[in-house]
Amino acid sequence: MITVLLYTRPEDQGVAELKAMLASLQEEAPHRLVEVDVSQQPGLRQALEGRTPLLKIGPYRLAAPVERKQVLVALRAAAQGAAQGRAVEPRRATRSDRFLYWFARHWLLVFNLAVALYLSLPFVAPVLMKVGAQRPARVIYTLYGFTCHQLAFRSWFLFGEQPAYPRAAAHVPGLVPYGQATGLDENDLLQARHFLGNPKVGYKVAICERDVAIYGGVLLFGLLFALFRKRLPHLPWYLWLLLGWVPIGVDGVSQIVSQIPHAPLPYRESTPLLRTVTGLLFGLTTAWFLYPLVEASMAENREALAARLHVSRQVWGE
Fold it and tell me: In the prediction, which pLDDT does 311 show?
C-alpha cells in the first residue's frame, strides 16, 4: 500500500478538503495517509515555509490547490512504480538517519567548535612551553607541522619582547628582525621551522600568522552566520575570487617568486599585517561562499530526514 504524506500547519486552509478527497480515492487507489504537522518538526518548518498544505506521493509532490485527477494519477503512478520494484515508499528510519538528522540541524555548531578547537591548540603550545610542559607542547607543534610551514619569522610569539620577529627584508618599523633577535640565520628555513622560542623572545604559536588569520576568518563568519544566516546573502563566486583569492595570491606568489635566485621581481618579504589581512579576507570569503551552500544542502536533508523519522513514528510506532 502506498503511503501518502500530507504536510500541514495548524493555520493551513483546505486541509479537510484534501483529506476528504484522499478518502474518496481509497477504493480506486488504496493508500495510507500520514499527516505531518511541520510546525512541530524543526527540520521541516523552515524548509516548507509557505508551501503547505503539500502532498507527497512517492516521488511526486503536489502543492494545494490540487485537482482530484492529479492526485489519482500520482497515486496510480506511485503504485505502478512500487509494483515494478522502484523505491517509492518512505523507508523505516535507522540510527544513521537519526544521527544525520541531528547533524543536519547542528552542522554549524559542529563546524564552529571544530574550527575553534583547531585555532586554539596552536596558542596552547606556547603556553605549555612557558610553564615547562615541553612534551605536550612539542606534540602540538609536530601535529600542526603537517599543515603549516611554521617558519618562526612568519609566526606570532607569546610571552616575549615582541608579538612577531619578521625578517629584516620586511622592513617593519618598531620590530627587531628575526635574525637580530635570535642570532639565527634568516635564510636557514629548516632552522626557522624548528625554532620554538626561548624565555627572551617568547614561544612560537604553532601555525603561521596567515593561517591564524584564515581560520580566524572562518570562525568569525561561522559565528556571524549562526546569528544572521537568514539575512546574509550568498557571496557570488566572482567576489570570492576577487576579495579572497586575489589578495592572498598576489601577496604569497609575489613573495615566493621574488625570492627565487635571479627572479624578475625585486626581493620582498611580506609583513605580519599583510599576511593577516590577506588571510582574514580569504577565510571570511571562503566561509561566506561555502557555508550558505552547505546550509542549503542540509536544509534538504533535514526535510527528508524529518519526514522519514515522523513516518517511522506513525507507521512503525517508533
Answer: 65
